[in-house]
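WARN retry 2 of 3 for item q-0093 after timeout on previous attempt; input resubmitted unchanged.
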Amino acid sequence: MAVTIIYADKAVSMKSAQALGDDLWVLTSELQAATGWELKPQGLCRDERCVTIPAARRDQFLRAGDMVNLAALARQLGQPVVRDDPHAIWFFGESADVRRNTLASLKAPDFTLPDIDGNPHSLSDYRGSKVLLLSWASW
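OK item q-0093 returned
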């Protein structure tokens, strides 16, 4: 059964991924396309950030030289992981550090919603202007 990985708001279905308990093993050759992370000599890297694989825990991160445990990386980064075993879906959230820095910046994340006529509006369209957001729920 294929595993769906949702990482950084990108969903990828991977037939070669293996979910074993709390661990999710992904082929190193498919890791970058799914998550942006890649295995380098200095560790697991994404853009300019590299995470060193602790020597004492190398077997928790790497298997047979061609598999990486994405869940172990998430635990190392403090990322929350939610999985739905019956549907083989794994979601990786932002780490507490990233969320804290985002909140401290006081910048709202960009989003797009339709108005009452169905025309889409993005928050970024109003950058530099004052914006009042109203929310409503029927319940």
